[in-house]
Amino acid sequence: HGMGSARAFQVNELAGTFAGLAMGLNGITTALIVPILAHFLVG
Questions:
Q1: Within a 13 Å sphere around the CA of 1, how many CA atoms are in the beta-carbon half?
Q2: φ and ψ at 12, to 5 degrees?
Q3: Residue 12 backbone zone (phi > 0: left; psi -120 to 50: alpha; other: beta)
Q4: Cα separation of 13 and 31, whole Å?
Q5: DSSP one-letter code for 12
Q6: Contact 11, 19 (CB under 8 A)
Q7: pTM of this prediction?
Q8: How far is CA 36 from CA 5, 7, 26, 27, in A?
Q9: How far apart (Å, rounded) are the C-alpha atoms in residues 11 and 6?
Q10: How far apart are CA 36 and CA 32, in angstroms?
Q11: CA–CA gap between residue 38 and residue 4 (Å, rounded)
């Protein structure tokens, strides 16, 4: 994922910025939602 973001940054600075932002937001969202879903699915 990091290599793809780095490549996007080489091609176009704006594309690289959005690629990094999307990767970061995806990580934060996953860290917040997965524990909640696991609680409902397991418990």
A1: 9
A2: -155, 130
A3: beta
A4: 27
A5: -
A6: no
A7: 0.74
A8: 29, 34, 16, 15
A9: 9
A10: 7
A11: 29
Residue whose pair of structure tokens reads 């879903």 in the numeric block = 37
Closest CA to 1 of 36, 32, 30, 35: 30
Q: What angle do CA 22, 35, 25 make, to 5 degrees?
A: 10
Q: How far apart are CA 21 and CA 15, in angstroms?
A: 10
Distance CA 16, CA 22 (A): 10
Report which residue type is found at 29: T
Q: How confident is the model at residue 33 (pLDDT cuts 50, 70, 90)?
A: very high
For 10-29, how does the pLDDT look when each residue is reduced to its tens digit (9 = 90+)? 999 999 999 999 999 999 99
